[in-house]
Fold:
Amino acid sequence: MRHFTNIIIGFGKAGKTLAGTLVQHGQDVLVIEKDAMMYGGTCINVACLPTKNMIINSHNGEDYADAFAAKNKLTSMLRNKNYHKVTDQETATVLNADAEFLDDHTLQVTDDSGTETLTADRIFINTGSTPILPNIAGLNDSQRVFTSKTLLDQSQQTKRLAILGSGPIGLEFASMYAQFGSDVTVIGQTPAILERYEPEIATAAKADLETDGVSFLLNAQLTKVADTATGLSLTVTTETGSQTIDADALLVATGRRANTDDLHLERTHIETGSRGEIAVNDTLETSVANVYALGDVAGSPQFTYVSLDDWRIMANQLFGDKTRTRTNRPIFANTIFLNPAISSVGQTEVQLKAAGTPYQVLKMATAGVPKAQVIGNPRGSYKALIDPETHQILGVTIYAEEAYETINVIAVAMQNHLPAEVLRDQIYTHPTMTEALNDLFNF
Structure:
């Protein structure tokens, strides 16, 4: 039985970064990853970076085959870089194997050479999340049903794509495939898309997606999936009755859950939450001492940058002043990469109304920003909510080119309690989309 100071299960963003920190402090670490194609985690291999690379290339008019090749080149380079970033360290070891718990502090790993039992002073679980596949007749038996991961592996463009799910992942794929020239149909269970966002911006984004060729069946239920000689037959129940959709493939984008099935946590005292996530305290420790969980598997918001912040918390708790916790995580934004992107931070108008919080609304059209005209995409708008007395920024939603950059400036201002006029009066380089803040906050 081999013993390590640290074992990390999963080569994700938080885990691989933590491995580097442990090595820097003179500690040995074993990183276990069952899939050699996932070194570096979900983001660089099958999510954030490959999808954004494909999206950008679709917007730039690249054909699917060239974009697919560019995506594979990118992910291969990043995967290799991440692997060597860990394995090249003297006190770090990477093991390509399946891992499962035998008890609270004992692991069994299995690879082509057999099985081995391992123990460690500390165990960190960083196994991420996995797509949820709903229980729909025929869905699990079909050869033409894909998740976001497996659809990205398809070297041939899907010409008729149906998407189950009208959330961020489904809409990003819808926008991307429409830009590549595919016929796209989105099947959503809710009456509207992006219901957690500002409704007028969600409505505008839906209209723009329809202009780009995306069709929507909302307030609908997919009830049956059947393979045909040429593709798929999808039975969908809507408010007006049942209808059949023919497609070449179905992307299921109905959310993700903690990836713990193979860990056999039932053999341990590690507790899980109501959604299957591993329950952790504010410093990411599980119900078992010296066993920690980081990233998606711990129920953190499913963003790679939040997983990276989990690493910051863990590093601070192990080697710092122990002040960083999940409860004092800095303000952070989120982005959906459509055409253009939607980025938001803070609260929405609906949330402020529900809380009884006074607010002032500030709006402007993207078309009024010179850089939007330079880029050639004046779609969208900006919406900000501020405290009418203190002028503190309560929330902002941006539907515009480069929204994902501008929103970070606003998040920094909110984190540091800067009033809106600080952004209003700042001098920005020209032409940039950030210049919009001069006008947006001109109250």
Notes: The two ends are 68 Å apart (CA to CA). The longest strand covers residues 114-125.
